[in-house]
Structures are given as C-alpha cells and as structure tokens.
Design a protein that fits this description.
Blueprint (H helix, E strand, L loop, with lengths): L1 H18 L27 H8 L1 H9 L2 H5 L1 H4 L3 H4 L53 H5 L17 E2 L2 E5 L19 H4 L12 H5 L29 H4 L13 H4 L14 H4 L29 H4 L13 H4 L14 H4 L46 H4 L12 H5 L29 H4 L13 H4 L4 H7 L3 H5 L30
Antiparallel strand pairs: 1-2
C-alpha cells in the first residue's frame, strides 16, 4: 500500500506540473516547483493567506490600515490574484502599477504642493520596493537645508510642500510672539544665520541702528514704543510714573526735563528743581510752588489765604503784599498771628495795653475810633463822661496810666480848693457837676439839727477834713469866738443852749 500511495503522490505532482499555465515571475522562481507554497488543493480561498504568509509587510498594512493595501477599499475585499496574476513568465510585471494614474493619496505619503510635480524616480530608487521610499523631508532635502541641521529634521514644523519658503511655523508658540510690524518682517531680517537659535529678543538688539535717541534713553525701547507702530509711543507718563503731565507739562519734550538716560534719572519732582530760574520770588517763598501755582495757569496763583491757612485776611490785610508780613521765606518760618508780631513798631501805646490789639481795633479801621467799650473797663463812662472825647482824659495813648480819681481830671474845677480832699464822689456824680448830694447825718458822725441844717458847708469847713477831724464834735470847736462867757462855763455849750437858736437858754434846774 505504501508503494501504491507513494506512487500516487508522485503522479499527482507530476500532473500539477504538467497543468501549470506558465512560468512564474523571477521573484517566485524558487517556489515554482512547490505549488503548495502558493496554492492549496481544492481550496482557492486559502490562496490569499498563503500570499500574505510570505508578504508580511503587505499583511501588516492590511491589519493596520496603512499603506496602499491597507488604505485602498478596492484591495480590502479582493484576492491577491485579482491584481497580481502570476505564471506569465519570468519577466512579467504582475504589479500592474500605472504611475500616471496611481493615486498616491492611498499611500502613507500623500503628494501635495510641489511633490505633485515631482517624478516618481526622484523619490523611488529603481529596482527597490516602493514602500522603501523615504518619508521624511530631511531624507530628500538635506542638501537644501539652509539651517544646516541646526533645527533638527522636523522640517514640516515650519515648512509645507506648497513651497519651501511658504512657512507654516507659528511664531506665537515661541517666547517671542510676532506682533504688529514684526508680522511683516522676513525671517532672515532677524535670523540672519538661519540658525533660529539664540536669536536676541530685545528691541535694541535689532533696532540699535534705528534708535533716534542714539542710546541716550537706554536699551529698554519697550518702555515707550510698541511693535504696532514705532512712532506711536505706548509710554504713559501719568500712568507709568508718579508725575502726571498736565497742561504745559504735556507739551514738553522728554529732554526738557530728563538728562541722557531718563530711565536712570532719579528726578526731583519739586517745581523748583526745574523752575528755579523762573522763580520771581528768588526763593523767598520756598520750593513748594504748587501751593500757590498750577501748571495750567502759572502767572495766576490760586492760593487762598483764608482757606489754606489759619489766618484769614480781612480789611486792610487784603491789600498788603506777602512780603510785608512774610519777611523770611514763607514756608520756612511759621509766623505768629498776634497783632504785635507785625505791628509792634506801630503801637502808639508802647505796649502799655498788652498784646490784645483786637480788643479795641480791627483790620478794617485801624486808625479810626476804636470800638472799645469803656463800660467794660474798671471805669465805666457815666453821665457827662459818655459825651467827652477820649483825648479829654487820655492825653497820651498810654491809657493804662490814666488815673480814675475825679481830681485827676477836675482838680482845676475844684471850687473847694482842696478842703474836701479828693473824695469828690462823696457829694458829686457824673450826671451833673452841680447836682451834688451829701447826707451829713448819714455820712458823718455829726448830725445836722436845728440851725445847723441851714448852715453852709464852708461856714464850718474852713480848713481841710484832716484838720477838722482833730477838733472833735464839741460846740466850742466851732463857736469859741461866739462864747460871751469867755469859757467860764466850759466847752459844753449844750448844757444851756440848744442847736435851734443860740439865744435860747435852757433852765439849769
């Protein structure tokens, strides 16, 4: 049986060889004697599997859906033999590739832009598998790389196949986004060496030659300028500094205040630091110019003495010049506000009335009659005193030295010639000099009775009060010359006589 089986197998192989339609291609020649390498007897559907067992790259493409065999919908459900028919001879082309009509989009490398104009042979080496063609830009364009490999091999990060100089690179993804005029610049304007590495990012590094300031303002161009328009300064003095430019200051050029490098200047913002030569006060009013002046109206001071100080200017004070009071620099010396601090030399009272000038005077009528209320003084003006001029009593302006006694003013008017001393007020009052009133019974120790009531004062008061006080209150003190008894009955006349009439004699019982 074994011989029989063996003979049968040999016969079968011979038969397959005998019915083979033709020679296979050169690539399959070593398999030609082994039909089972590509065919399975009585099972045509198994042929694809046998093909893919050998052509592993194609099998992988089909599984991964890559390459032509993985992407083409026409290939997915077709037998390999539908396109690649063998047994047509050693030199037969079983690929069936028509380069003119082949759709390269069905491969892993779609032809775009300039690649559409490229011949197949420029990328595909003759006799090599098409799949072995390089897929990286640098594989073909290393000789064209102006960057000399400094930027790596990922050319597609910047370039696109529509044109080598048509870059897709987004500069905004770098540390230096392109803004304004920078978007119009060519790459080589900044990247002269095409290295694109270690390129300076400061304005001055590129624009030093454009610097109209010739380096005077330093290298921080972005402090004033922006890439939108070089002449459109973005620097805002009011926002970016502590000194807001208003009115006339806004019209000044930077160099009017700033030196060689304004960003290194430690500017003194006091007005006098710039306007010292313009100070018509010659420094007398200090360096706080803004206390009185504003940058929009320098010649017209806005200083209001009434609201800006504790001393309101009233009356005559409104007409005087500042220097009349502010002899020393205004803001350097704190002035006293009492009158005599300025008017000491004008004081006609020579200080005898103290420092409260405002008790009598005001700023409006300094030389006019004062509004002093004499009734509030220790000597109220009563009666006729209210009708006389001040000078009648106050011969000088030293009012405090003026006496308050009657005889101080009325000594020459004293009809008593000093007999009643200086106590004029004992009998007289200021209503009228001749309307005097004296109550001898109450104001003295000697009541006037009888004939004494009608006696004139000077009938008894022939000498001063001091002399009369020494005599006592006896009758003989006044009537000694009338004593017809020559003192024989003593000095007590009242034992016999009454005060109604000297001639009336009482009984001595």
């Amino acid at each position: 049986m074994l011989a029989c089986f063996t003979g049968h197998t040999a016969t079968a192989q011979t038969i397959e060889s005998l019915v083979m339609p033709g020679e296979v291609i050169q690539g399959h020649a070593d398999l030609e004697a082994e039909c089972s390498s590509c065919h399975k007897r009585f099972d045509r559907s198994a042929q694809n599997g046998l093909c893919l067992d050998c052509h592993e790259d194609v099998a992988n493409d089909a599984v991964s859906r890559s390459g032509f065999h993985g992407r083409s919908s026409a290939v997915a459900d077709s037998a390999c033999a539908a396109c690649h028919t063998d047994h047509a001879g050693r030199s037969a082309d079983i690929l069936g590739l028509d380069e003119a009509t082949f759709d390269h989009a069905l491969t892993d490398f779609e032809l775009l832009g300039k690649h559409l104009e490229t011949a197949c042979a420029d990328c595909h080496e003759p006799g090599d598998k098409r799949r072995n063609a390089p897929g990286e830009c640098s594989d073909c364009h290393s000789d064209d790389d102006v960057h000399k490999g400094n930027l790596g091999s990922e050319c597609a990060d910047c370039h696109k196949p529509s044109g080598w100089t048509d870059s897709t690179f987004d500069h905004d993804t770098t540390d230096f986004p392109l803004v304004g005029k920078h978007r119009e610049a060519e790459c080589r304007d900044c990247h002269e060496d095409q290295a694109h590495q270690d390129t300076p990012t400061t304005c001055f590094a590129c624009h030093a030659g454009d610097d109209v300031h010739e380096g005077r303002t330093g290298e921080q161009c972005e402090n004033c300028h922006n890439p939108t328009d070089w002449n459109d300064s973005s620097f805002n003095h009011s926002r970016d500094t502590d000194f807001e430019l208003l009115f006339k200051h806004a019209d000044l050029a930077c160099g009017d205040c700033h030196s060689e490098d304004p960003f290194e200047d430690e500017m003194d913002m006091a007005c006098a630091s710039c306007h010292l030569e313009d100070d018509e006060h010659d420094g007398h009013r200090g360096d706080q110019c803004d206390t009185c002046h504003a940058s929009n109206a320098w010649p017209e001071p806005f200083f209001d003495h009434d609201s800006d100080t504790d001393y309101k200017l009233l009356g005559g004070h409104q007409q005087i010049a500042c220097v009349d009071c502010h002899v020393e620099p205004i803001f350097a010396v704190e002035l006293m506000t009492n009158c005599d601090s300025c008017h000491l030399d004008d004081d006609p009272h020579d200080g005898t009335l103290g420092e409260q000038c405002s008790d009598c005077h005001n700023e409006t009528v300094w030389q006019d009659a004062p509004f002093f209320d004499h009734d509030l003084a220790s000597f109220p003006l009563l009666g006729e005193h209210g009708n006389i001029e001040c000078e009648s009593c106050h011969e000088t302006q030293h009012f405090a030295d003026t006496g308050s006694s009657c005889v101080g003013c009325h000594r020459e008017d004293d009809s008593h010639k000093g007999l009643f001393e200086e106590s004029c007020e004992s009998c007289h009052n200021p209503v009228a000099w001749d309307l005097w009133l004296f109550d001898h019974d109450v104001q003295t120790d000697f009541e006037l009775d009888g004939a004494h009531v009608d006696v004139r004062c000077n009938d008894c008061h022939r000498s001063s009060f001091a002399s009369m006080r020494k005599t006592g209150g006896r009758c003989a003190d006044c009537h000694r010359s009338d004593d017809i008894h020559d003192g024989e009955f003593g000095a007590d006349c009242g034992r016999c006589h009454g005060d109604s009439s000297f001639n009336e004699v009482r009984s001595l019982q």
